[in-house]
Specification:
α3 packs antiparallel against α5 and α4 crosses α6. Helices cover 53% and strands 4% of the residues. It contains six helices and two strands, in the order αααααββα. By secondary structure, the protein is mainly alpha-helical.
Amino acid sequence: MDSLRAAPAPPPAPRRKRPRRPGAAAVAAAAGKVDAAAYLTASLGMPRWMERLQELDGLVQETEGRLNERWRELAAELAGRPERFAERWRRIAARWDFGAVNELVDQHNRYYPVERKLRFDMRRRDYVDMWGISWRRQPLDAAWVLAAFPPDLAAVPV
């Protein structure tokens, strides 16, 4: 029975203070060189291309929400008349204003490669993203609306 008794707990290890790791500015200063442009760039916050993408994604989500709401309203209004629904929905899609979204898409497509410092491929005469994924965004139009929200009354969830 004595062998089953719990052994006394070892004393707690002494706490050692961790040495503070110097920040990037301190390391650069210790090396004798401080790049003013890098310092200022780091202090400005998010790069413009990142802000623009967030803004663009928000506008696209907002547009999708408004279109979804209008699509469902029209389906409820024209229940039982699929031909009339398809005709009216195509007209709404053709007249929808994508001005703000497409302006941001245009700015993104124009400035993103330069702001992101993408590599330029001389053979293709185009910028190449580092992961091989296309960085271009397509403008929104009626075809995009009809692909996302088909002019088929049966496709509208009840």
